[in-house]
Target: Lipoprotein
Amino acid sequence: MTRLFNAFRTAFVLLCLLALAACATVANQSTKFDQSVYAWSGAIRWGDFEGALNLIDPKVREKYQPTPLQLERYKQVQISSYRDVGTSTDFDAGTAVRDIEIGVINRHTMAERTVRYRETWRWDTDAKAWWVTGELPDLWDGQ
Model:
């Protein structure tokens, strides 16, 4: 009877340790997600689009390299607001989606407009980092 009790106790302790390790991993992902979102939104909000490129998934970045002309176009606008209007995260799957509303002012006409776009994020287990899986926001929305 004592052996059976010790076996159950050992199994219970191991299960608790595994559960704690899983919680720590999700907590780490959550913290890193918050830090990455803060860095991305700060870069966009302050017009550092070249800096924001560093937070785009390296696989996407290889294919998507904005031309100097495209980067110059971003210098023609001032960001007046950057607002998260909805976030959905699944830390177990390593994915997140954020719906964003950006206030954009044309520096030449001083006209302001609002642009909405969707950010998608993925957790890279090897790099222990969150990456944006899309391109820089299209502030001209097809214009």
